[in-house]
Amino acid sequence: MGVVVVTGVPGVGKSTVMAGASEAGYGIVNFGDVMFEIAQAEGVPNRDQMRRLPVADQQRLQRLAGEKIAAIGNVVVDTHTSILTSRGYLPGLPEWTLRAMAPAIIVLVEATPTEITSRRAKDATRQRDADDVALHQEVNRAFAATGAVMIGATVAIIENHDGEVDDAVAQFRSLLA
Amino acid sequence: MGVVVVTGVPGVGKSTVMAGASEAGYGIVNFGDVMFEIAQAEGVPNRDQMRRLPVADQQRLQRLAGEKIAAIGNVVVDTHTSILTSRGYLPGLPEWTLRAMAPAIIVLVEATPTEITSRRAKDATRQRDADDVALHQEVNRAFAATGAVMIGATVAIIENHDGEVDDAVAQFRSLLA
Amino acid sequence: MGVVVVTGVPGVGKSTVMAGASEAGYGIVNFGDVMFEIAQAEGVPNRDQMRRLPVADQQRLQRLAGEKIAAIGNVVVDTHTSILTSRGYLPGLPEWTLRAMAPAIIVLVEATPTEITSRRAKDATRQRDADDVALHQEVNRAFAATGAVMIGATVAIIENHDGEVDDAVAQFRSLLA
Fold it and tell me: Which end of chain A is more exposed for a tag (fewer CB within 10 A), N or C?
């Protein structure tokens, strides 16, 4: 199958859903980790420095990370469709990253805004997100749709509702089958 | 005008709406038929075999079908914006197909999910679709929007509601005028 | 920062929101004006003639206008994400324009359909739009999302609600900060 990208807003329970990947013979990599490994090998000391690189350098690192991931073969990639910044929603899977990584499936893990807000509140380690959850999920769908048309990937939505996590994991595993 | 693509989820009544095309001087072709004709000329014996070709070959056939359709001139193309598969929503109009076919208009024929479900139930020949109709129509809008921005096509939505089919056909004909 | 594109349906109050740009050190240009200046220099006498040019010429003018704007540096661009035509929603920011202009932010100024309809009714100079406002805003979001993924721009939504214009202007200024 190749690369399967898994995305979702903070608090949606993405990691829980992805946990089924290894049984299906898939490793899991974090996109940001792969990107930072490449930056480190080029002498960038930490992630803060990486974020301050000129835009062209960051785009080059995103492309290289995408190519490195594509070379793995069967792999699940933990990343974001969009990131809410002070300047609006930034694509986490811009065109150059998508074309380099060439995922077969872009997975959106979703839940209701109420469920997500409640999960965030329970997570004491998480900085509170002032995010409009419904809008963020809508933007993610639109960004994912664009990526799918560019590269011919499928878009799969997995509903991760309260008390139905087994069902969400099963849905995810059936995508990898 | 050139190529006008008409799409819609199964059961929405796409064929009925398209029936007005010939009076406006447009032929109607089915994208999948054109693609299979090209595959047949290359020795592929049937559609099942075509679907089992390597992805790169299928993409090449899609591109060739798009080019063949673009060469016709004024033509209405019966196809899908997305197809629901076991791996999620697959773009029926991926970038390479769109660029080859270069439609002037991408038409989305829509109805309410209730209307569509009811029409499907009445069609005894149709395999029951377990499809989430509202989501499928939402995905189609997003995929069509992406295609439009890529090639500068317009996106037109035609509402094909119960008891208003004449209005839907008239809307479609006015697009071709 | 560079180019910041501001869009919104007719009547949403785009100009009011943009008024804060000059205090932040940004000029404001209208995309259509820049395009017409270039056309005039090529001998096109008026905007009607420009709209009747072959599609390839119009696309070339859009690209040139985009490049001219990108060369300005910090600038706010008044334009449309989509234009409602007799053939459906036409992308106001098609791929070639976006790539030439390379905006850092695509801003969508929005309000509720009721607010927008009421503002249009109060504006005696405006031709009445028979537009489905909710759908038009939905299409704008989808078109903006596509553009963002293509070039890595952020998408920012500014709500310009009745009685809260100061808040909308402040939101816009914070984007430029």
Answer: C
A137 vs A89, A117, A134, B32, C135, CA distance in Å? 11, 13, 5, 33, 19
Q: In total, how many domains does chain A have?
A: 1
Residue pairs spanning A and B at CB distance below 8 A: 59
Contact B156 C88 (CB under 8 A): yes
pTM over the 0.90 mark: yes
CA-to-CA dists, residue B16 to B74, B113, B172, angstroms: 19, 18, 10
Per-residue pLDDT of chain B (177 residues; tens, 9 = 90+): 899 999 999 999 999 999 888 888 899 999 999 999 999 999 999 999 999 999 999 999 999 999 999 999 999 999 999 999 999 999 999 999 999 999 999 999 999 999 999 998 887 676 656 679 999 999 999 999 999 999 999 999 999 999 999 999 999 999 998
Give domain status of residue B35, yes or no.
no
Residue B169 near residue B22 (C-beta atoms within 8 A) = no
CATH label of the domain that carries residue A140: 3.40.50.300
Q: What is the ipTM score, two decimals?
A: 0.94
Q: Pick from C87, C91, C138: which is nearest to B156 by CB? A: C87
User: What is the domain extent for residue B92?
Assistant: 3-30+73-176
